[in-house]
Write a structure and sequence with these properties.
The complex is a heterodimer of chains A (111) and B (113). Chain A is an all-beta fold and 111 residues long. Chain A contains no helices and eleven strands. Chain B has strands at 5-7, 10-13, 19-24, 31-38, 42-50, 53-57, 64-68, 74-78, 87-94, 103-104, 108-112. In chain B, strands 2, 4, 5, 6, 9, 10 and 11 form a seven-stranded mixed β-sheet that branches. In chain B, strands 1-3-8-7 form a four-stranded antiparallel β-sheet, with no helix packed on it. Classes of the chains: A mainly beta (111), B mainly beta (113).
């Protein structure tokens, strides 16, 4: 089983709708990264959350970290076709073991 | 453009062969990470180098090896290739060993036939 479970695995939304992607860890979270992979391109760093309860925003994307639940959520407001891609969460396991990743959530935004 | 350069972008090779993937980190970044992304296993951490020294190993097979050179570029060597090694191999770099901000290259697509 995966250390990091993302849900949903795939998502199709209409342009303008809000959506949430969840990332749940089976181990203690020291920090959590969110990345976006555009089809055929590399991974784009979105944001890193380090403290329980921390919330960060970048343009229309907001991510929160619930340390107690070992969970993070990524919320996109008023989705646009440019938001389409695969969203990956990555957990910082501390030390130099670095990051383990979830399997990703594939997002499609229909105009 | 993340500043991390990977070559080649695409590679097709036969089983049993050996290939070398190359990564040039962002200017000034001392940390280099290698990841393998396959369809069924998501993104798997392989190995981390910092300033020429190996810092951490993940799920890297014995048939695979890596190194970071004095000019900080890194190479991932894959030998005795099997069909299951077909994947997208990402390199990432960071300025610090803790990797608080990691920048990924576009990946090298390896297809083993």
């Amino acid at each position: 089983s995966q250390e990091l479970e993302q849900s949903p695995q795939s998502l199709i939304v209409q342009e303008g709708k809000n959506l949430t992607i969840n990332c749940t860890s089976s181990k203690t979270l020291y920090g959590l990264y969110w990345y976006k992979q555009k089809y055929g391109e590399g991974l784009i760093f979105l944001m890193m959350l380090q403290k329980g309860g921390e919330e960060k925003s970048h343009e229309k994307i907001t991510a929160k970290l619930d340390e107690k639940k070992q969970q993070s959520s990524l919320h996109i407001t008023a989705s646009q076709p440019s938001h389409a891609g695969i969203y990956l969460c990555g957990a910082d396991r501390g030390g130099y073991q670095k990051v383990t990743f979830g399997t990703g959530t594939k997002l499609q935004v229909i105009p | 453009d993340s500043g991390v350069t990977q070559t080649p972008k695409h590679l097709i090779t036969a089983t049993g062969q050996r290939v070398t993937l190359r990564c040039s980190p962002r200017s000034g970044d001392l940390s280099v990470y290698w990841y393998q992304q396959s369809l069924d296993q998501g993104l798997q951490f392989l190995i981390h180098y910092y300033n020429g020294e190996e810092r951490a190993k993940g799920n890297i097979l014995e048939r695979f090896s890596a190194q970071q050179f004095p000019d900080l570029h890194s190479e991932l060597n894959l030998s005795s290739l099997e069909l299951g090694d077909s994947a997208l191999y990402f390199c990432a770099s960071s300025a610090d060993p803790a990797g608080n901000t990691i920048y990924f290259g576009e990946g090298s697509w390896l297809t083993v036939v």
